[in-house]
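Example (one chain per record):
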Amino acid sequence: MTGPDGFGPFTAPPPPDPRAGCLLVAHPSLRDPNFRGTVVLLLNHSDEGSLGLVLNRPLVSEVGDVLPSWQDHVSEPSSLFQGGPVGLDSAIGLARLPGDDSEPPGLKRISGSLAVVDLDAPPEIVAPAAAGLRVYAGHSGWGPGQLEDELDEGAWLVVDGEPGDGFRPDTDTLWRDVLVRQTTTVALVATYRPDPEVN
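Predicted structure:
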């Protein structure tokens, strides 16, 4: 296939390398029930492993059921989200900060405007500095080289995230919406249907 100028083969740009702030979008071939249809925000990625949060798995439980002082400060919906299958008895807070420079008390910036929240800090101090805040029960984790192996197997699509991805009031269509906005052939994955007869 020739490129848009008609002078050479068309080559899709390579996907971004996994890094803090990017998204892992589950490929339809990924059947693991913990991750099927998920969008995972990577919080950390290094030779020692990777850690992330599933963005589109709201739970029935309210934040106030486990962290009452944070209930009035989280973005809608005010439910807990399941960040992954690891450490379900622990919680991680995610915040969106205005600007890209400051790091207010109780917030540790991970990439761009995204920050991890110290949930032991007083919410009255932390929340006013955040433009969005969400609490996740558990997280997603990979050991050294494990995520790279899954990427080689085609289990995940790596795409750039947008600041609002983790704070949408409705996450039901996040998987499809993230794919549709891509400008490469990755966007075609959004047309996948579970029944192969209608693909």
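Caption: The chain has three helices and ten strands.
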